[in-house]
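Practice set, problem 2.
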Amino acid sequence: MQIPQIQINQTPARIGIRTTPPIQEIQQKPADLSIKQTKATMTIDRIPARLEIDQEQAWNELNVKRLSVLSKDMAEYSKQAGLEAIAQIAQEGDQLATIEKNTNAIADIAFEKAVPLPADFNIAFIPSHGSVKINYIPTELHIHWKLGGPEINAVQNKPIHYYTPGKVEIYLRQKQKLDIHFSGTKINHIR
């Protein structure tokens, strides 16, 4: 006896996936930058130092005089010496006038001329202290600054962006199929 058999062959459906990847492009142009540097400036106003030395009094005390001072001093000295000589001559005349009173006027005058009075002296520092006058004016500096600095101008550039989206395409690569086979008996079909 033969057993009827059913053979079923099944082919499953298969799908296919086709992908197109996305494309993305980004371009970034650098920023436009301009830098301007202003220099710092410095000005210096300088008044130089000044040293004034007045030695005229010291030179005069050392008898190293200018001609104008020397001539003035000589005129004064000559006038004073002339007045003193006139006074002495007048005094000697007055002494000689008293000769009738039995005085030794001539001997006294001769003694005064032969033996002068002791000289008046003292220790003196020549030139004297403070005879050289010194005046010093220090240097003056005036410094003026004008600060510079950078001037920066920046312009941003936006990025350029290109984007193409990707695609996913799904398709039926293989259709499903079902095959049924009967073997071993005859099957009557009822109509």
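Problem 2, part (b): a different protein.
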Amino acid sequence: MVHDVRDRSREILRAELADAAATFCAEHGFDKVTATEIAQGIGVSRATFFRYFASKEDAVVSAARGAAARGSFARRIAETVDVAEPGSSVWAVIRRAAESMSDMADARGDALRARIRMITDVPALTAHLASQRRSDQTAVEDVLRERLGDDRAASALAAAAVAAADLAWQEWARTPGSRLRPLLDAYFTALGDVATATLG
């Protein structure tokens, strides 16, 4: 229990530091500041910064995507699976687990949209985001493999889940005034339906 509390506290602190780092970069220009300058700017030591982030790219991408929401996607899937009714659709369970993303998007609004768009404009950030996406997919895959006992199904569902979430985030960031929840619904429904689609 104590270990769980410590992990949760570390996750919250990491999210707060990422948020401050992203704000600093937005104000000063991502390419114009170093990780050391970011650490100084947000009031922590260089050692503390690197205790939580591998690089300045890591900090900014974590903030833009929501460290608390993205980092716990696999855990939320595990929790949702554990309380799901027998016979529930695995895809529907995964969609419910993504709901925390909607809450975070609603709370952060335009500031988060701007950060996501910043990532698409900076090649180093785009590359780092791709790396984080692979880590997310692996974590989701591990959870599903444990629950399903089928490696191929777990791999396919994990890839589709991360893709659906990414597509929803991208459209949300490009569309002022949009809500993430209906976009998640649309992409999860589309990917769920496409597997059974027939050619005309």
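Answer key, part (b): The chain has a mean pLDDT of 85. The radius of gyration is 18 Å.
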